Amino acid sequence: MSTIVDTNYNFPGQKSVYKGKVREVYNINDELLVMIATDRLSAFDVVMPKGIPFKGQILNQIATQMMKATEDLVPNWLIATPDPNVAVGHLCDPFKVEMVIRGYQSGHAAREYKAGKRILCGVPMPEGMKENDKFPEPIITPSTKADNGEHDEDISREEILAKGIVSEADYVVLEDYTRKLFHRGTEIAAERGLILVDTKYEFGKTKDGKIVLIDEIHTPDSSRYFYADGYEERQQKGEAQKQLSKEFVRQWLISNGFQGKEGQQIPDMNEEYISSVSDRYIELFENITGTSFGKADVSDIDSRINENVLEYLKR
Questions:
Q1: 133-to-40, 57, 59, 104, 129 alpha-carbon distances in Å
Q2: CA 234 from chain center: how many Å?
Q3: Which of 64, 66, 159, 186 is the most buried (most CB within 10 A)?
């Protein structure tokens, strides 16, 4: 199955290319950004050696749908999606923090809690919680935005302001937008029989100084979902929650001795495993969006993207 793991386009007016862990962003005339969601898979801030069929399309289409479902609350960067793997939007200067918001004590928060910590990013976590319990109120636990190959680091609101990473006036807006998006995302998830557990948002400033949502929103790469059905019973019995997120990949890696630490080898992902990950991502798409997934033609995915973007830029 054909995948796209690297791009090397030369679009008219192209000024620069930024290659992130999963997305590649082309600057067109310092006006537009062409963001290509590749099929790369990253876990523990490490990019896996093989691509996952349809993953880029899935992430791009979920993010597009969720941007449209929240644009009445929070402005975003998106203008068009000329290809299943491509989003085009306004050039923005990104804030150097990721706004992580958690409704439940899961994932990183649960690992920190188990290690005895009761304060995460300057925010207290109540005593007596079990893994996957709901917080009394969602908590915002920001992280720094690391360069490729580096790990994102937890950071508190106080540190962000003290270091001047974001001005206080802007940070107040980021917090407000984060809470509004999470509230809407929680409502959308509930309609689909899901619980939005935690997620991260990224924001940037347009040329005219407007703060907008950028990158992705409510995708399985940036968010954790539980199935609502049976959540309470599983909590009471101390059972693991049924998840819709990339966590299944992390757990597989952990069970194969990999957590992104120095000297650890990435385990080999055979074709069968890659195919199963692709199937899981399709399941995630259908559950999160409530629509069935239509596979794009991937016989020559590279040329398809190139032609669709060129056609769009011509207009």
A1: 32, 32, 27, 6, 6
A2: 26
A3: 66
Report the 10 Å Cβ neighbour count for 33: 21
63-104 tens-digit pLDDT: 999 999 999 999 999 999 999 999 999 999 999 999 999 999
- Spatial neighbors of 245 by CB under 8 A, at least 6 apart, are 197, 220, 223, 224, 225, 284
Contacts of 142 (CB under 8 A, 6+ apart): 97, 98, 99, 100, 121, 154, 155, 156, 157, 160
SS3 sequence, the chain?
A: CCCCCCCCCCCCCEEEEEECCCEEEEEECCCEEEEEECCCCEECCEECCCCCCCHHHHHHHHHHHHHHHHCCCCCECEEEEEECCEEEEECCEECCEEEEEEEECCHHHHHHHHCCCCEECCEECCCCCCCCCEEEEEEECCEECCCCCCCCCECCHHHHHHCCCCCHHHHHHHHHHHHHHHHHHHHHHHHCCEEEEEEEEEEEECCCCCEEEECCCCCCCCEEEEECCCHHHHHHHCCCCCEECCHHHHHHHHHCCCCCCCCCCCCCCCHHHHHHHHHHHHHHHHHHHCCCCCCCCCCCHHHHHHHHHHHHHHC
Per residue in 275-299, pLDDT (tens digit) is 999 998 999 899 999 999 999 999 9
Q: Closest Cα to residue 200, out of 107, 105, 102, 99?
A: 99
